[in-house]
Amino acid sequence: MSFDPWKLARKEVLDLPVYSPGRSPEEIASSYGISDCVKMASNENPLGPSPLALRAILENLERCSVYPDSHSQELRSALSQKLGVSPEMILVSHGADEAMDLIAYAFLDPGDEVVVAHPTFTSYELAALTMGARVIKVPLRNYRQDLKAMLAEVSEKTKVVFVCSPLNPTGTVVMREEWEKFLENFPPSVLCLLDEAYVEYVDEEARFDSLSYIRSHPFLIISRTFSKIYGLAGLRVGYSICSPEIREILEKVKLPFNVNQLGQIAAKAALEDQEHLRRSREVNARGKKRITELLEELGLDYVPTQANFILVKNGRFPDLYQQLLRKGVIVRDGVPLGIPGHIRITIGDQRQNDRLEEALRSLVREERKD
Ligand SMILES: Cc1ncc(COP(=O)(O)O)c(C=O)c1O
After folding, report:
1. Counting atoms of ligand 1 from 1, which one is nearest the CA of 98?
2. For residue 114, what is the enclosing H or E element?
3. Looking at domain 20-48+275-369, what is its CATH homologous superfamily?
4. What is the mean pLDDT of the chain?
5. Residues 52-90: pLDDT tens digits?
6. How far apart are the CA of 8 and the centre of ligand 1, in A?
7. Among 38, 44, 39, CA closest to 235
8. From atom 7 of ligand 1, which residue's Cα is the shortest distance away?
9. What's the whole-model pTM score?
10. Is domain 51-272 classified as CATH 3.90.550.10?
11. Is the Cβ atom of 173 under 6 angstroms away from ligand 1?
12. Is-cis flag, bond preceding 119, omega within 30?
């Protein structure tokens, strides 16, 4: 009899959907023979990392031979100063993604429930399913999370409610009033994760100080990342802010050296680089204006966004994702994101936005010829 590892794997693992990431230019070059693709699919920063982070990495390359600080103390202390919360309330993780896993490992038993919006960022669901928890999905209303309906799904089995703002994949945000109402009605025996991976892109008018609610609402965990505006997606560094007790519990299940040496060093340097942050916001704002004006001109519907990506309806181009791909522009198809009939475009720099514009205009020209 031959060895079959599938027979040994847990049922939850066998049933787990596989995460499908944005495709890389190298993959598209080899499968479609298209060179010179632009990737506008994974909400990375088109400016790349902060020059201060790059310099810090280069100056510290030799430290690769020693284990990193298992508690990311220096980075936590820098974050603590920046955010005005004590280091005991900060957990640094291997990307914000790891925070979702840690919450699941630490708190979810088989049969427990979590409540999420649908669609939302898929890591919440994957983390919960891995532990055998049930995922209750609450449909969006007009591309926004329906917090009231999400609260209505909380039962005695619920352990965590996951809220994402700005919401991936729509780019809509939770507004202060609805957030406060949500917290007022939130059951104090359940955890709430507020995922703010894109918070630095949010316009002033739509922003509120989410951290100020943690002390009065100890069930809250707020997760953020260095992968987006800080341009360090490849180094995998995220952080969460929560009560010291929750941090202590999550620390128990994390790997001892969860955040690599260069990641900790680069993130600390990136945090200081106000100029890079300012430029990144500016490039995004310019790109957002340009892309939304273009979509309006071409008659393509989109969801107004507070993030560095835009959700666009396929409309009269049912195969928009593939059509753009054939023109060397890689975006995300709505199907794996749980929102068929749409694509999600990461706002790029001028060169990437030029390519997107060229591709969309040529689709419209080809349409007219048909
Ligand atoms: C909403 C949201 N949260 C978290 C993450 C994960 O970020 P990280 O790269 O820090 O794991 C992403 C990445 O795309 C995201 O879109």
Report:
1. 11
2. strand 113-118
3. Aspartate Aminotransferase, domain 1 (3.90.1150.10)
4. 96
5. 999 999 999 999 999 999 999 999 999 999 999 999 999
6. 31
7. 44
8. 96
9. 0.96
10. no
11. no
12. yes
